[in-house]
């Protein structure tokens, strides 16, 4: 093992080497050009037509735009500074400041991207500080992320969860002649793939999305030599949309992403819209790029298990102690909120019910449920125990509302007292009671109010559009084109659901389509049939 980290500055490159891996970045751009590890000269792809290596980028629009896509901006620094260099750590800062000469061509943000290498560590960290100052024009920030394009000759096996991993098609399989575009460009039917085993399958990056709460580790495995490349996100505090928002993870190219802001699955409400002169600053990350290996090719797939164990260590280490920026508060500069949450529903029980497994969180001040549309600030979430007790730890200083959501009950909870977190502050809010909105007893209900359609009927996919991973899989709803199956199932008449007769597990289509009908048969006092068309 190396006793220290070597930093080598070249004319247009800077190289970090800790004896375990070598990281090469452009100087002063801060684009990752190379990662050498375990006998592989470069884990990254540098020969794609468009996107190569590793990079931070964003998508932005002019102020007032209602579109969720605008101009892409691969963030390249104009200045490099070594902010820490000692035996234990090197931290590089690649900065880009905004000035009026680039108005309309570049997003009006000052951006400081950091890369950190620790001694003997099989990986590196990256984070960024985005700032919009009082003299900057307004604009919309649609997306920002860090992305890595991996060596397509090396990485063929992808894992995003224990039950969502497989050998993947080649990026060449998506090209014209080998792939047939479907309803949207991300979805391609593989008609003549390089490997015949993939023929007839659909490749679609959205099929591998993860909810924020589950998006902690994902990546790729090379089998010769057996090496893993993993993106680990130890905290969700800097992601937008709350714990249930879905977003991209890893997908064909091969690509692995850490997405911090996006409107995916939500739309315009999640865009960061800045007015002229609006002051804002946010730290995205750090995220950890973890590399691992085994000696025996037969054990290559066990690298996923090791990556999960490393993820747990990173989560336990959060907030990290090593980032040099004062904008990233350390553990002793953060606070804590605790309490107990109960549910009172007079039609279920005369007594308060512990809000077991409720999601309880802190997010910027807003209305009930506003955390689902929040992107500018930070969020901190936990789950209540069987007694309804919760503890939200490691909270950045700032002003927050406390929000909650309880599975099985309609509505969102908001604690009306604003909370101000200061360093080292431990706030006990005591016992809180959520009263779900209702006007009377429940007459009938279709499904379970749990922010999921998992209990409803998910049809088999069209045999022409299969992803073999999701055949007989709990996430079978991710198959391509299921929305079109409604017309196959109901070619002449729309779905009619009869309360008290129909079974929502079999009779209620999982996706909302153009129209359907609900009929209630009132037999106790009359024989009138009432049909509600929604």
Task: Describe this structure as you would to a colleague.
The chain is mainly β and 534 residues long. The chain has three helices and 35 strands. It has helices at residues 303-316, 485-489, 504-507, and strands at 6-9, 13-17, 21-26, 32-37, 54-62, 71-74, 79-85, 89-96, 110-118, 123-132, 139-149, 155-161, 164-167, 179-181, 187-190, 202-204, 210-211, 217-223, 226-232, 246-247, 250-251, 255-261, 272-274, 280-293, 335-343, 353-354, 359-363, 380-383, 389-395, 398-405, 413-421, 426-434, 496-498, 517-521, 529-533. Strands 7-8-9-10-24-19-18-12-13 form a nine-stranded antiparallel sheet, covered by helices on one side. Strands 5, 6, 11, 21, 22 and 23 form a six-stranded antiparallel sheet that branches. The chain has a four-stranded antiparallel sheet with strand order 1-2-3-4, with no helix packed on it. A hairpin with a 4-residue loop joins strand 9 (110-118) and strand 10 (123-132). It is globular and about 75 Å long. Mean pLDDT is 94; it is low at 523-534.
């Amino acid at each position: 093992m190396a006793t220290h980290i070597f930093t080598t500055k070249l004319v247009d490159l800077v190289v970090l080497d800790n004896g375990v891996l070598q990281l090469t970045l452009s100087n002063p751009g801060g684009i990752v050009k190379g990662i050498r590890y375990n006998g592989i000269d470069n884990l990254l792809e540098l020969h794609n037509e468009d996107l190569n290596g590793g990079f931070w980028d964003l998508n932005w629009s002019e102020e007032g735009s209602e579109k969720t896509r605008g101009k892409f901006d691969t963030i390249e620094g104009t200045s490099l500074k070594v902010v820490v260099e000692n035996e234990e750590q090197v931290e590089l800062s690649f900065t880009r400041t905004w000035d009026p000469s680039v108005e309309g061509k570049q997003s009006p943000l000052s951006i400081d991207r950091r890369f950190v290498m620790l001694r003997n560590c099989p990986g590196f960290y990256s984070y960024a500080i985005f700032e919009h100052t009082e003299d900057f024009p307004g604009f919309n920030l649609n997306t920002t992320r860090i992305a890595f394009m991996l060596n397509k000759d090396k990485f063929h096996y992808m894992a995003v969860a224990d039950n969502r991993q497989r050998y993947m098609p080649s990026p060449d399989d998506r090209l014209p002649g080998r792939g047939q575009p479907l309803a949207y460009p991300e979805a391609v039917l593989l008609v003549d793939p390089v490997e015949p085993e993939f023929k007839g399958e659909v490749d679609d990056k959205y099929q591998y999305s993860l909810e924020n709460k589950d998006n902690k580790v994902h990546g790729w495995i090379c089998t010769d030599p057996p090496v893993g490349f993993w993106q680990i996100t130890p905290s969700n505090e800097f992601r937008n949309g709350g714990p249930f928002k879905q977003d991209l993870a890893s997908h064909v190219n091969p690509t692995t992403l850490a997405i911090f802001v996006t409107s995916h699955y939500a739309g315009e409400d999640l865009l960061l819209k800045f007015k002229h002169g609006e002051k804002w600053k946010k730290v995205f990350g750090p995220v950890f790029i973890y590399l691992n290996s085994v000696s025996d090719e037969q054990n290559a797939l066990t690298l996923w298990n090791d990556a999960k164990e490393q993820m747990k260590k990173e989560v336990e280490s959060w907030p990290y102690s090593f980032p040099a920026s004062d904008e990233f508060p350390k553990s002793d500069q953060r606070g804590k909120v605790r309490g107990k949450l109960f549910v009172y529903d007079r039609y279920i029980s005369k007594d308060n019910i512990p809000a077991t497994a409720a999601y309880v969180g802190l997010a910027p001040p807003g209305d009930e449920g506003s955390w689902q549309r929040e992107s500018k600030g930070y969020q901190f979430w936990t789950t209540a125990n069987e007694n309804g007790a919760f503890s939200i730890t490691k909270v950045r200083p700032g002003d927050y509302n406390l929000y909650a959501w309880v599975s099985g009950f309609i509505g969102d909870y908001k604690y009306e007292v604003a909370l101000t977190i200061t360093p080292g502050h431990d706030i006990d809010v005591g016992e809180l009671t959520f009263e779900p909105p209702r006007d009377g007893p429940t007459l009938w209900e279709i499904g379970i109010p749990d922010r999921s359609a998992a209990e409803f009927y998910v049809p088999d996919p069209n045999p022409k559009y299969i992803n073999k991973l999701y055949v007989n899989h709990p996430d079978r709803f991710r198959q391509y084109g299921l929305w079109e199956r409604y017309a196959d199932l109901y070619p002449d008449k729309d779905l009619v659901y009869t309360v008290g007769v129909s079974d929502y597990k079999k009779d209620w289509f999982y996706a909302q389509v153009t129209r359907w009908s609900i009929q209630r048969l009132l037999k106790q006092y009359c024989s009138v049939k009432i049909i509600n068309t929604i």
